[in-house]
Specification:
15 helices; three-stranded antiparallel beta sheet; alpha/beta; binds zinc ion; eight-stranded parallel beta sheet; about 400 residues
């Protein structure tokens, strides 16, 4: 494995800063591409995996550890932060960067996805959503404008619009309603952003449409016509078969405007990242590496390892002999299993470092390969490694 730290340090020398929102395509191979997006907190080299820190921190990790492993952007969630500790509290602390001690770019999700997941706790109309929080049941209202206000208070570099995310098993009629409503909300967001967001904050639009390719194309045309700084595919990895998700990415991502960054929200497994990059997607996030780490599931170049299993009780090997992370450099599987069994919080930290490093290194290697004109051979090696376990797709 190439250590993403090495690659980042060589990419970031002698860069003249461009205005936030500038996006350069630096290399292409078929639909796949490497680029650089500029934000108010510096550049993001793409393709880029974004670790998820719902409350503004990756659970158990010091932001200095994230920097050291080459994380460029972290993801926060406006819904969670609006209620815990409160957007005004974060604003009073100087914004999310200063509050959390993370000085690189932050992308915040609007929180719409979370609110639409509160089954039985929300009521949607064309103006917005009434909901009760899962924290204390208190009643609130979310609109296309209010989610931008929260993200302005948080001071995120990339703000996401409010979209209507239908359930993964939604009927065609439900998906149609969600698409039309998302377009109207996107139009309202573009009208409101100049008075709500601060200069330099970027705003991304979201394309819905389930796995109906015709509807996706139609919605992409509508959202791409609006002056967003980047475009995202939402409503994927919400319960549809992986093959359908992959087919949607392969069909739609190459049709997204070339001159703007492309983001697929909430994916995924290593194979999903391979398909996304191969389809020309620039950015992706997933809670999987950190959440699964805490549950005992570790990703390796030879497949997944369940550290809780008895077979690791006396295993002196690191989690992954090919891994360059600080956990694998020092600790054995037997020790990690022991920490997990004892309920020691150190386990979650060491395991999260490994899993995030694994995802960051995977994407960094493909990014570097694109820029060196070696994408086909590097991608083929990963495909052999991760493709077989993924089933059809
Ligand atoms: Zn490792």
């Amino acid at each position: 494995m190439i250590d993403p730290r090495t690659e980042l340090s060589c990419e970031r020398t002698d860069l003249a800063a461009l205005d936030p929102g500038c996006f350069e395509v630096l290399a292409e191979d078929g639909p796949a591409r490497a680029g650089r997006l500029w934000t108010a907190h510096g550049p993001v080299d793409t393709p880029c995996f974004m670790p998820v820190g719902t409350y503004g921190a990756i659970k158990g990790l010091d932001p200095r550890e994230l920097e050291a492993m080459g994380a460029q952007v972290i993801l926060g969630n406006a819904y969670h932060l609006a209620h815990r500790p409160g957007a005004a509290v974060v604003a009073g602390q100087g914004g999310l960067h200063r509050f959390g001690g993370w000085h690189r770019p932050i992308l915040t999700d609007s929180g719409g996805f979370q609110v639409f997941s509160l089954r039985g706790l929300q009521r949607i109309d064309d103006d917005g959503v009434d909901y009760r929080t899962h924290f204390d049941g208190s009643a609130h209202r979310m609109t296309p404008e209010s989610v931008l206000t929260v993200q302005a208070q948080l001071g995120s570099d990339i703000c996401m619009v409010l979209d209507h995310c239908p359930p993964g098993d939604g009927s065609p009629a439900q998906i149609r309603v969600a698409v039309d409503r998302t377009t109207r909300w996107a139009e309202r967001a573009t009208l409101a952003r100049s008075r709500i967001l601060t200069p330099g904050q970027l705003c991304f639009g979201i394309v819905q449409g389930g796995v109906d390719l015709e509807l996706r194309r139609e919605h992409l045309a509508a959202i791409a016509a609006l002056p967003f700084d980047g475009l995202a595919l939402g409503g994927l990895s919400v319960g549809e078969p992986p093959a359908s998700m992959h087919a949607t990415m392969r069909a739609i991502a190459p049709m997204m405007p070339r001159e703007r960054p492309r983001y697929v929200m909430g994916i995924g497994m290593p194979i999903d990242l391979l398909v996304a990059i191969d389809s020309g997607v620039d950015m992706f996030d997933c809670v999987l590496p950190s959440r699964n780490a805490r549950n005992g599931q570790l990703f390796t170049s030879a497949g997944k390892v369940n550290i809780k299993r008895a077979e690791h009780r006396e295993d002196r090997r690191p989690v992954d002999e090919d891994c360059g992370c600080s956990t694998c450099a020092r600790f054995s599987r037997a020790y990690l299993r022991h920490l997990h069994a004892q309920g020691d919080p150190l386990y979650g930290r060491l395991a999260t470092v490994h899993n995030l490093h694994f995802f960051l290194a995977l994407v960094a290697q493909l990014r570097l390969a694109l820029r060196r004109g070696r994408y086909r051979e590097v991608a083929a090696a990963f495909w052999t490694r991760f493709g077989e376990a993924a089933g059809p797709g």
